[in-house]
Amino acid sequence: MILAIPSAARATDDLPAPTSTAPVSGDPAGCQGPVLTGVRTGRHDQYDRAVFDFIGGTPGWRVEYAPLVSQGQGTTIPLAGAATLLVVFSDACTPALDLTTVYNPNLPALRQIKSGGYFESYASFGLGVTARSGFRVLVLHAPDRIAIDVAH
Question: For the whole model, what pTM was predicted?
Fold first, then answer.
């Protein structure tokens, strides 16, 4: 499920748990090359959320269950959890954060987030999750961000 919501995140707090496990993708939005500035997580009653913060709009994106592969080396990057939700951003500028940072929120569904790197306008991340659960992607603005919800 893909939702484009121009209002603040509080408008998404009462969503039901996501149910789809099918790959989803979206186009860039904004007039500047988007720059990834932050990664954060949160727990909701029925799902966990990973948020990727941007300035200059949002990049193109694809989210699916697949292994996280290191860009440039081609090696699989292991993550905590039983499944990996792969997030690939396209048409993005060089991220303004340390891609070696490993996030360990250890939430009910979302265990870990790692980067696969950045190369030629593509940045990849893996979300280590406890099971191949339903997920959804929300493209939010003011401020620009892409949120990924994973059902408990």
Answer: 0.91
Burial of residue 65 (number of CB atoms within 10 Å: 0-12, 13-18, 19+): middle
φ, ψ for residue 137 (rounded to 5)? -120, 135
Residue 91 DSSP SS3: coil
What separation in angstroms does the CA of 117 have from each of 18, 35, 100? 27, 14, 8
Tell me if the bond preceding 95 is cis, omega within 30° of 0. Answer: no
Strands 83-90 and 110-119: unpaired
Task: Report the DSSP pairing between strands 35-43 and 47-55.
Answer: antiparallel
Confidence check: pLDDT of 6 > 50: no
pLDDT tens per residue across span 14-66: 799 999 999 999 999 987 789 999 999 999 999 999 999 999 999 999 999 99
Query: φ, ψ for residue 9 (rounded to 5)?
Result: -60, -25
Comparing CA positions, the residue from 143, 77, 148, 141 lying closest to residue 109 is 148
| 19 alpha carbon, distance to own chain's centre | 17
Q: Is the pLDDT of residue 116 over 90?
A: yes
